[in-house]
Predict the structure.
Amino acid sequence: MVLPDDTIADLLVEAGTRIVLLVLDGLGGLAREPGGPTELEAASTPNLDLAAREGTCGLIEPVGAGITPGSGPGHLALFGYDPLRYTVGRGVLSALGIGFDLRPGDVAARGNFATLDDDGVVTDRRAGRLDSATGAELAELLAGIELGDVRLFVRPVKEHRFVLVLRGDGLSAALGDTDPQRTGTEPRPPEPLAEEAGTTARLVERFVEEARRRLRGREAATGVLLRGFATLPEWPGLRERFGLRAVALADYPMYRGVAQLVGMEVPEHGEGLDAAVTALGELWGGFDFFFVHRKQTDSAGEDGDFDRRVALLEDADAVLPRLFDLEPDVLVVTGDHSTPAVLGRHSWHPVPVLLWAATARADGVDGFGERQCRGGGLGSRFPAVELLPLALAHAGRLAKFGA
């Protein structure tokens, strides 16, 4: 059950405790052969296994049974925001994540440079995962496209990703994605989902056509795919809702964007998990809640690389002692969704979670994996949106309810 916002707010108490949320993006996996281990089960993770034995484990559902979540809804649930109520498109998150000055009424979309064949069929949705320098060059090329009275911005994000922003009067974000989310088919037209979005749809169609013309003849990036059209929402932040001074240590712009949207500070720091943990230690005295993000576990799953996912999980395990050296009151380790390498995409499978705290009940789980977590104290269908209130309780930040 998702509690009303004011229920938690009314129970908040001051405490000098600290909560760390380590998100290994796309954590949940599947076995690559019947009866075999998942990526997490195959990885050697002695530190995570120890934390699982001392804490409470389970499997979380980011949105609901059978629902495959995007990264935005998956993270919002982990931050205590019901993703069915707090909805936002990927474009806003990507724009905020790169520090773009997004304004009310702007329409933003996440873009991919993609490979289209001569017949306009998508053969690679990520154009071979372009390097960031090439992506920036191509974004500058498309930024010169003109759409009459409507201003157009194209900004590079990372690798093959970019942000498209339209600014002008009478725009609507009620548009369907042009990204078909699979290869072997043509991009979709930007379908208006409401009557008032017709003009915006035609502008986006002009942009897509002109982008393809300007990219013609290139080896990899020969077209663009757009998804997550959105405008900037106004939401209460983590400080208001949960009494938390929060900071995000994340490399990828989208995750920095979703953190900023809920009121986290998003400082610059070096790339990689080691750099994020170093920055966390330097910021330890100034915050109550620390969101630490690891993207590459998801990327390896999308690439279908089981072995690389195993290696990345082992790398993440190796930094855990550094987190415990800081003596957090609560440590939560989980993912925003599952990205099994055998599927090569996000999936609906529940995600392993462990919650470590001095007040956690050890539940007999002997290691951190899907099979073990299924029998943990949190159960196999724990709503992700309830995880942060549970962490607050273990951190001594919630008073008793009722007389």
In short: The mean pLDDT is 95. The longest strand covers residues 107-116. The chain has two domains: 5-87+235-394, 93-230. The two ends are 21 Å apart (CA to CA).
